[in-house]
Write a structure and sequence with these properties.
By secondary structure, the chain is α+β, with helices and mostly antiparallel strands. Helix content is about 55%, strand content about 10%. A 5-stranded mixed sheet has the order 1-2-5-4-3. The protein is elongated, with a radius of gyration of 32 Å. The protein starts with 5 loop residues before the first helix and ends with a helix. About 5% of the residues have low confidence.
């Protein structure tokens, strides 16, 4: 029975907690597994982690005492601690980006009954001069359909508090707890904390916008007309080939391609420009983002200032020769297929042997040079 005896209610709550701890742990695991299963099915949703916990017994009592006790005693309203502790079971869902917070909320709202919602971000934004933890809290219980299933019968009346936050908000929450004084403090210190909070908020927004901009660049790079659009952009800056430009240096490089391109000959080669061109020459091959990034950086390290036009010309001019070599190489080595990256390495080497001599390993370079020499001898005697 509810009472106004805090000492008694603490004793009764501790007994309740200890008697039900095993079932609380089982409910925690059930809710966590269900949330993981539901969110795993959401296309494109990226989560950092899903954590579950049963709230510490003494922490529950302390929260009740600080949040509810005085008001209940003032109104002489009998109580039990248990009825006021709605977050005995808790889930923390950490997203990568801030716009995913409400995607998670939408999914959970479709499968759980939402008892209460607390938007920490909105409450902070409506209060000037305040700072602190941002995130979304949902007080949930199983939806009607699942409450009627035998496997969920034990948890039909259980409530779970779900905290949904971004990885930046999660980091702020951890660090925020280390700041011992945040309210009655000097204005200069409060301004510094406000500045830090603003930087965290800016980081959240910038990560989302970088993600969106990257997705747009990739969509353009992987579109069916990406290569044609690139050629149209670069074509006015590509000079018409002259006989002197198609001659070769003593080492076999093409002078026009070996020379450092000027700024007027196109944009500097980046990962997105690389993809536009590479997807054209190797249609259907899946270029992994981390490999594209490091490979483009490697090419640029050998030829600082290399443009998309220069890279495209190198591929267009030499890929036929390299494909012939690829056939020869794979006949000699049936178990060693040349990947698109290796084909590109050979094309870049042919375009500028001085700059790209170390883009090929010594053995690969020597084998390629021997084959080139036999091709030249065959042409000379034809």
């Amino acid at each position: 029975m509810p009472s106004l005896d805090f000492k008694l209610e603490k004793k009764l709550f501790r007994q309740f907690y200890d008697q039900h701890l095993d079932s609380l742990e089982e409910a925690k695991e059930t809710f966590a597994a269900l949330a993981r299963s539901l969110l795993k099915q959401v296309p494109g949703l990226q989560l950092s982690k899903i954590e579950a916990r049963v709230k510490d017994r003494e922490e529950c009592i302390h929260k009740f005492q600080s949040k509810y006790l005085l008001a209940l005693e003032a109104t002489q309203q009998p109580y039990t601690i248990q009825e006021h502790v709605t977050d005995l079971i808790g889930l923390r869902i950490v997203c990568l980006y801030e716009d995913e917070v409400h995607r998670v909320k939408k999914v959970l709202s479709e499968h759980f009954e939402v008892i209460d919602t607390t938007d920490k971000s909105a409450s902070l934004e409506s209060t000037e001069g305040e700072f602190g933890y941002k995130g979304l809290h949902l007080d949930l219980r199983l939806g009607a359909a699942r409450r009627n299933l035998p496997e969920y019968a034990s948890y039909a009346d259980s409530r779970v508090e779900v905290q949904i936050r971004t990885i930046i908000q999660d980091s702020w929450s951890v660090l925020d707890h280390q700041i011992k004084y945040k309210k009655s403090i000097p204005g200069s210190l409060k301004r510094r904390i406000n500045t830090l909070a603003a930087l965290f908020e800016l980081a959240d927004r910038e990560f989302r916008e970088i993600r969106d901009a990257t997705a747009q660049e990739l969509a353009e790079a992987e579109s069916p007309n990406a290569y044609e659009e690139l050629e149209a952009e670069e074509q006015p800056s590509i000079p018409a080939p002259r006989s002197s430009e198609t001659s070769r240096d003593e080492d076999g490089s093409t002078p026009a391609l070996a020379s450092a391109p000027s700024a007027t000959r196109g944009q500097q080669l980046d990962a997105f420009g690389f993809l536009r061109i590479a997807n054209h020459f190797f249609n259907g091959f899946e270029f992994a983002p981390h490999k594209v990034d490091s490979f483009t950086q490697e090419i640029n390290s050998f030829r600082p200032g290399l443009t998309r036009t220069g890279f495209n010309q190198s591929m267009r001019t030499h890929i036929s020769t390299v494909k012939d070599y690829k056939k020869h190489f794979e006949l000699l080595h049936p178990t060693d297929a040349m990947s698109p990256y290796e084909v590109i390495r050979h094309c870049m080497y042919l375009s500028d042997k001085r700059s790209f001599q170390h883009l090929l390993g010594a053995d690969m370079r020597q084998a390629f040079e021997r084959w080139l020499s036999t091709q030249q001898d065959a042409q000379a005697t034809a």
